[in-house]
């Protein structure tokens, strides 16, 4: 037995084998039995007189949802003192007003003062009301709740402990939610405490330890401790350098400085940490989180159980490598060092990486073979994704060529002056290019993406976090090792980080203090999920690649089948592959139309008929379910239009602003199409597959953006840069330029320095 604050903690609970807590957040979804501890700051209102009813209702809703999923939920709650204080204060004020009205007249009512209320009396007055409130709320979800009041003495007596254990198990067996609280009406008098404005609050510290004791004794899988702070910080919350600790490990107490406790209660964060560590030692996982924040309190409990990164997770399993937060900080520092290198040094790193791709070809292909074999054995990847996962010698050679292009074109990318203005005499302003900061690139089944994106980040002086799919783990590991080997020649190895922790993509998208831009590379569903999950971080990319080819009435017979075959069949899984073929109505039942259909059949392309196309046919292919479909395979939709204007309108209505093509010999029609189609890439008599950073001469791309802000189309080095303003003066102040000042604005444009074109 060991004691904290004179409260006995029994190290091994009754009849319980030493359990194992969950090692990772992602395992919390398997928690069956859960204790939710509600601190006073969560349950009470801001004025500390009464309960926060809306917050409490939201918590009950979440607990009910989990209970109805088949989990066993228990609540350790505070709030009886605050609820009782509200009731007693009302009664005292009413009684005083009656007496003073009888004896002193109305004039003295305003001088009435509420005496200090004894906490045990408040608890006695509030317990029944608090429980009635819980019962009423749980009834809305067809769930029964039961109250259990305990004191410290109940844990000293072996028989009482057995009885308590048996009662709780029986309630859980009957699908009843136990509401547990310390019996504050009969506890010994507390030490004087002024935290609760006139009420000596007791038992909040007891409720932290009570929740831990019950969690361990009941063999609970998870203890959720809700407070009024986001979790555990390495220094007092609110201080300048305070950082939220994502995962806390036993033995980390030395790295934490505890501050003052919350506005109510006696426990404080230090008591919560002690209780959490004790519960963790007993086999119960623990999360401390904020239950008061209006933006998250409505789903904080369910988010924790789903394994999302909320609050501080206590774990006994310490990972071998750095956390993703530490990796973000390393990428930030490494990126700044990288940006400070000479352009020739950054280019040298990229040339070295290109050489390593060819020198280490056999090792790379061997790792890729492992990924392909594992994916095929598990059968979890569709054929298009398997094609994206596959690397070859020719692919690696093409990658190396692209990287050398990036190195050659990046000489003056960072720090390039794009505008110079003389504001006044001896006051010159420059606008120069600078890195965006830290990029997070998330990619699926595309190991070739890793060296491409790494080279672009190096060339633009950005720090980089890479999150690849599990299916490419072996390939990504070796490619990242080669990237870091290349970076090491100038001491900036940390600038490119590969996230290997079990971090969910949604959690990464919340790291707005570490990440400046997210670039997803993968399926449209992945991109949509990231765009939805990103909180305060811009996302560059496109959610769909619905590319059109319009065959005009003046199209060349020789060009049509070549361009369509290349656009659809060369790499159907690519985002720049043809998905919808628009045919001018006058071409139906012509030899050119027959040639198109025959070619698609030979290439085994499945055809879906658009509504208008189907109406012209007696026996048509299957009618398309949606004209806004990205097939990503040997399938496409054919639709009929009456004119180039209708083709443009169709593209605007059903396209994704990615890449659209016209095939025609009529220059006037072509120019109309080029000027009016509002997509990132618009081509005349060329395959959609040219929409690519390498083919554009950018060396490579981090992706294709359909955004209308910043970069659009294939994004190379230029799209990974922003600007800053440099003003060089000589004792200039704004007051000198006032109406009666001694200086005047010139605003003269100055010539730009000569660009390095070597």
TrEMBL record:
Pathway: Amino-acid biosynthesis; L-proline biosynthesis; L-glutamate 5-semialdehyde from L-glutamate: step 1/2; Amino-acid biosynthesis; L-proline biosynthesis; L-glutamate 5-semialdehyde from L-glutamate: step 2/2. The keyword Coiled coil does not apply. It catalyses: L-glutamate + ATP = L-glutamyl 5-phosphate + ADP; L-glutamate 5-semialdehyde + phosphate + NADP(+) = L-glutamyl 5-phosphate + NADPH + H(+). One of its GO terms (molecular function) is ATP binding. Its EC number is 1.2.1.41, 2.7.2.11. Residues 324-588 form the Aldehyde dehydrogenase domain. The keyword Phosphoprotein does not apply. One of its GO terms (cellular component) is mitochondrial matrix. Residues 32-290 form the Aspartate/glutamate/uridylate kinase domain. InterPro entries: AceGlu_kinase-like_sf (IPR036393), Ald_DH/histidinol_DH (IPR016161), Ald_DH_C (IPR016163), Ald_DH_N (IPR016162), Aldehyde_DH_dom (IPR015590), Asp/Glu/Uridylate_kinase (IPR001048), G-glutamylP_reductase_CS (IPR020593), G5K_ProBA (IPR041744). PROSITE patterns: GLUTAMATE_5_KINASE (PS00902), PROA (PS01223). Pfam families: AA_kinase, Aldedh. Keywords: Amino-acid biosynthesis, ATP-binding, Kinase, Mitochondrion, Multifunctional enzyme, NADP, Nucleotide-binding, Oxidoreductase, Proline biosynthesis, Transferase. It is found in: Mitochondrion matrix. GO terms for biological process: L-proline biosynthetic process. In the C-terminal section; belongs to the gamma-glutamyl phosphate reductase family. Bifunctional enzyme that converts glutamate to glutamate 5-semialdehyde, an intermediate in the biosynthesis of proline, ornithine and arginine. Can form homodimers/multimers. This is Delta-1-pyrroline-5-carboxylate synthase. The lineage of its organism: Eukaryota, Metazoa, Chordata, Craniata, Vertebrata.
């Amino acid at each position: 037995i060991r004691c904290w604050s004179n409260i006995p903690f029994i190290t091994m609970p009754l009849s319980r084998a030493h359990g194992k807590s969950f090692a990772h957040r992602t395992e919390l979804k398997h928690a069956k039995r859960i204790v939710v501890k509600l601190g006073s700051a969560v349950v009470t209102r801001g004025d500390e007189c009464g309960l926060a009813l809306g917050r409490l209702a939201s918590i009950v809703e979440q607990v009910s949802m989990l209970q109805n999923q088949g989990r066993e939920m228990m609540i350790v709650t505070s709030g009886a003192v605050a609820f009782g204080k509200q009731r007693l204060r009302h009664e005292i004020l009413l009684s005083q007003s009656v007496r003073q009205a009888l004896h002193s007249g109305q004039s003295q009512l305003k001088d009435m003062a509420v005496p200090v209320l004894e906490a045990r009396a408040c608890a006695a007055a509030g317990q029944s009301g608090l429980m009635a409130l819980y019962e009423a709320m749980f009834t809305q979800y067809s769930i029964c709740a039961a109250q259990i009041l305990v004191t410290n003495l109940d844990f000293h007596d072996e028989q009482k402990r057995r009885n308590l254990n048996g009662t709780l198990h029986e309630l859980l067996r009957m699908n009843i939610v136990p509401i547990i609280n310390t019996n504050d009406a009969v506890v010994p008098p507390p030490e004087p405490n002024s935290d609760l404005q006139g009420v000596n609050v007791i038992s909040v510290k007891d409720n932290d330890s009570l929740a831990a004791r019950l969690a361990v004794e009941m063999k609970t899988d998870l203890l959720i401790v809700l407070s009024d702070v986001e979790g555990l910080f390495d220094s007092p919350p609110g201080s300048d350098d305070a950082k939220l600790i994502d995962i806390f490990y036993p033995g980390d107490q030395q790295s934490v400085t505890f501050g003052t406790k919350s506005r109510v209660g006696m426990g404080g964060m230090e008591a919560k940490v002690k209780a959490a560590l004790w519960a963790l030692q007993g086999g119960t996982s623990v999360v401390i989180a904020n239950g008061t924040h209006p933006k998250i309190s409505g789903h904080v409990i369910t988010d924790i159980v789903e394994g999302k990164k909320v609050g501080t997770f206590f774990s006994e399993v310490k990972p071998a490598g750095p956390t993703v937060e530490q990796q973000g900080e390393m990428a930030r520092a490494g990126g700044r060092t990288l940006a400070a290198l000479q352009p020739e040094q950054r280019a040298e790193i990229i040339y070295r990486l290109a050489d390593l791709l060819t020198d280490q070809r056999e090792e790379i292909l061997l790792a890729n073979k492992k990924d392909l074999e594992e994916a095929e054995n598990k059968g979890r990847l569709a054929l298009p994704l398997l094609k994206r996962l596959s690397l070859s010698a020719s692919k690696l050679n093409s990658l190396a060529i692209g990287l050398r292009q990036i190195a050659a074109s990046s000489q003056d990318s960072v720090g390039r002056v794009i505008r110079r203005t003389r504001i006044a005499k001896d006051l010159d302003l420059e606008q120069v290019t600078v890195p965006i900061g830290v990029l997070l690139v998330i990619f699926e089944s595309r190991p070739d993406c890793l060296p491409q994106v790494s080279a672009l980040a190096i060339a633009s002086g950005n720090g980089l976090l890479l999150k690849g799919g599990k299916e490419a783990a072996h390939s990504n590991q070796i490619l990242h090792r080669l990237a870091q080997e290349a970076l090491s020649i100038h001491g900036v190895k940390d600038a490119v980080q590969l996230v290997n922790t079990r971090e969910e993509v949604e959690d990464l998208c919340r790291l707005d203090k570490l990440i400046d831009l997210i670039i997803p590379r993968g399926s449209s569903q992945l991109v949509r999920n990231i765009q939805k999950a990103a909180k305060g971080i811009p996302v560059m990319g496109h959610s769909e690649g619905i590319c059109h080819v319009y065959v005009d009435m003046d199209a060349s017979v020789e060009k049509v089948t070549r361009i369509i075959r290349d656009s659809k069949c060369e790499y159907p899984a690519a985002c720049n592959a043809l998905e919808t073929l628009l045919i001018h109505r006058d071409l139906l039942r012509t030899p050119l139309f027959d040639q198109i259909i025959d070619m698609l059949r030979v290439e085994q392309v499945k055809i879906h008929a658009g509504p208008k196309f189907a109406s012209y046919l007696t026996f048509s292919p299957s009618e398309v379910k949606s004209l806004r479909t990205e097939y990503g395979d040997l399938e496409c939709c054919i639709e009929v239009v009456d004119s180039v204007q209708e083709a443009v309108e169709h593209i605007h209505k059903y396209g994704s602003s990615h890449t659209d093509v016209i095939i025609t010999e009529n220059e006037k029609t072509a120019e109309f199409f080029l000027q009016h189609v509002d997509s990132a890439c618009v081509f005349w008599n060329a395959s959609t597959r040219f929409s690519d950073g390498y083919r554009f001469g950018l060396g490579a791309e981090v992706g294709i953006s359909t955004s209308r802000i910043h970069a659009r189309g294939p994004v190379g080095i230029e799209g990974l840069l922003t600007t800053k303003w440099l003003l060089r003066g000589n004792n200039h102040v704004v007051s000198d330029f006032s109406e009666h000042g001694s200086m005047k604005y010139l605003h003269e444009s100055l010539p730009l320095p000569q660009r390095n074109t070597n």
